[in-house]
Amino acid sequence: MQKLSGGQAAVEALKAEKVEHVFGLIGSATMEMFDALYDAPKITFIGVHDERTGTHMADGYARATGRAGVILAGQNGPGATNLVTGLGQAAAAFSPVVSIAGSLSTGHVYRDAFQEVDQQALFAPVTKKTWTATQVDRVPEMFREAFRVAMTPRRGPVQLNLPRDVLSATAAFPPFQEPAAYRSQHVPAGAAEAIQEAADLLRGAERPVIVAGGGIKNTGGHKEALELAEALNAPVVTAPGHGDAIPFGHPLNAGQMGPRGNPVASRLAKEADVILALGTRLGFNATFYSYHNINEQAAIIQVELEPTAIGRYFPVAVGIWADAPTAALQLRDAIANREKRAEVEAWTEEFARERAAYLEKRDADAATDAHPIQPSGLFKVLRDVLPRDAAVTLDAGTLCLQATDALNHWEPPSLFTPLDFGLVGFSFACGLGIKLGCPERPVVSLMGDGGFGMTISELSTAVDHGINTVTVVMNNRCWGAEKAYQRDFFGERYIGADVSSPPFDKAAELYGAAGFRVERIGEVGEAVEAALQCGKPAVIDVAVDPAALYSFRRDSFKHRGG
Questions:
Q1: Which residues have a Cβ under 8 Å from the Cβ of 277 and sit 6 or more positions away?
Q2: What's the half-sphere exposure (Cβ side, CA atoms, 13 Å) at 274?
């Protein structure tokens, strides 16, 4: 037994989980925990400028490494409320973020005390689970439960509130347990009957398609998915935001499907007779919940680790509750002796020709001589100059949405987006977390000028800790997505659409980072290569045509006759 304060016990619990980085903003409510971190040299504290962006860093770290990302809001009340947006984002991405916040002393609850807010109620809608510790000797138990819930499929964020009096109290604690003692290390396989039923459908398919989603990407299951695809000779389309679920260079990779996907992948989903949804909900961004985006006559086989997701949006022919990579290997084995069918060969050969033509046309149509800079030209240069092992982060917004299937993602995981949360201001901070988790990889963050303006203060964090990412600010001086809707559906009645910003390259230099300014497309490649090699955090301010806007959600404005 060892006598510890609640703050010391909290840090010992982090040590037991082998936590290497804690993102956070210091505050008086958790001083005992910060003081204990001072004596924990194996845990690096990354002090941030805003709890929201710190949560995005923890989110990016978690997605890139597969380990829990930890964020510590030192202050209750406003320090805690700033976490909400970041946790909402992590929840949409099923990202295992363990969020910790100081909380009001238990004797002051319900007394309108300083910085009082009901944190238990506040976080419930944006986390898998929220706890408030009630006594010091239960702190290790609470931390074990927090990491267990965050890391248990489907993964997601959790919130742990630590009252001041709990952190300052002391108790005698037994040795802290290793994670394997209280967390399952195994995932379920598909039931034999369901696997066989699905294999029979796949054997009979003439136009099979695999839709690879987060259940493949987040588990690193691309090899298993491709072994099945090769056994079937079936094209693989990826769910939006998961264009890196399988490597770009594989001949069966069709790219992202759906309303925001490319035409080749989208056609495959609309014409397939058997759709194997492998670790995907077939949710909003993939389908808009509409048969306009998948074949209504197709037999759907859905493999999901979350049983309530199976058949939720579309009826399934076979539902398989299982880990997606595990089920992929089971299906591969079940169809091992399948005879090659001429119909499938023709279907896949047609896809391969169409895919090759699409990629060739994508390069040929890129506006590489235009001034001002057009998105297609910018993305073409980025495809050419980004290293193959680069990790790319994106924001929401019209330019980043255009980029989701316009870049090539070679080494999974390498694409990190806001997914269904559609958050602006995510990309730069997420990239900092990824770089800390994967320091050997180049990290390039794309965002608009509005989103970067929200988060520019974290350049101090990047400089202070030597987190050398490259941020490409696609500067079109407006909130592009909304301005596109005002242009296309509201008679160009612009209000609140334009953004003014300082020169971001000069602002970066004032922070101690490297800054680059690009006015013409011919300058992009050299700037990116210099930024990658400069040995500092870098910002490239790219002047993009303000008129290069696109209305992605045209379906939302059909009532306006657009």
A1: 211, 213, 300, 301, 302, 303, 304
A2: 20
Residue the block writes with tokens 């990629």:
359
Report the C-alpha gap between 466 and 48 in whole angstroms: 13
Q: How far is residue 452 CA from its own chain's centroid?
A: 17
- Structure tokens that stand for 6 in this block: 């609640």
pLDDT, tens digit, 9 for 90 and up, residues 323-345: 999 999 999 999 987 777 899 99
| CA nearest neighbour of 120 among 108, 107, 104 | 104
What are the tokens at 357?
Answer: 């033509």
Which residue(s) pair with 478 in the sheet? 498
DSSP string, 320-333: EES-HHHHHHHHHH
**Tokens, residue 302:** 């859905």
Q: Which of 44, 138, 34 is nearest to 79 (CA)?
A: 34
If one counts every other C-beta atom within 10 angstroms of the C-beta of residue 353, the result is 11
Are 137 and 256 within one domain?
Answer: no
Residue 562 maps to a domain = no
The two three-digit tokens of residue 37, written as one number:
């971190």
344 lies in the same domain as 394: no
What would the pLDDT profile of 181-210 be if each residue is shown by its tens digit?
888 878 999 999 999 999 999 999 999 999
- Residue 88's φ and ψ, nearest 5 degrees, are -60, -40
Of 323, 357, 391, which marks where a domain is finished? 357
